[in-house]
Design brief:
This protein has one domain: AhpD-like, CATH 1.20.1290.10. About 70% of the residues lie in helices and about 0% in strands. It has nine helices and no strands. The N and C termini lie close together (about 10 Å).
């Protein structure tokens, strides 16, 4: 990963805690669902770094090219489950809060597909990826999957 600043050198304890928290939250739901949420939020936020990273991670976890490519048009694409659609609608609603509080339909759909505990876990994941997007865009992070594989 390259950056205008090394975040882990600048604030090592907090960045370690942030990464550890991110990892724990990401491990709390289905791996491919989590990657779809990360990619979708990153698309909305225009975070090339996170789109690059999470599409590679989604592929490594078995996600198909078709579903990755169609994610920006998930509402029209028939290849997502009802549970995934609920997660993606919730991701869109929370990531776009500044555009107006129109999350009520998304919440109802979420409640039909996820337990209360899962709703909290998913909401935390959406918060985490939105935070990473802001760190990546703000400080010019760039993740190169090939470099990680070589390391």
């Amino acid at each position: 990963m390259t950056a205008k600043m090394d975040l882990f050198a600048a604030a090592p304890a907090l960045m370690k805690d942030w990464l550890d928290t991110s990892t724990r939250i990401a491990g709390s739901l289905e791996p491919t669902l989590i990657e779809l949420v990360k990619i979708r939020a990153s698309q909305i936020n225009g975070c090339a770094n996170c789109i690059n990273m999470h599409t590679a991670e989604a592929r490594a976890k078995g996600e198909t090219e078709q579903r990755i490519y169609l994610l920006s048009a998930w509402r029209e694409a028939p290849c997502y489950t009802d549970r995934e659609r609920a997660a993606l609608a919730w991701t869109d609603a929370l990531t776009r809060l500044s555009e107006g509080h129109n999350h009520h339909d998304a919440l109802e759909t979420l409640q039909a597909q996820f337990t209360q505990e899962e709703q909290v876990k998913l909401t935390l994941m959406i918060n985490v990826i939105n935070g990473w997007n802001r760190l990546a865009v703000g400080f010019g992070l760039w993740y190169e999957p090939a470099a990680k594989a070589a390391a």
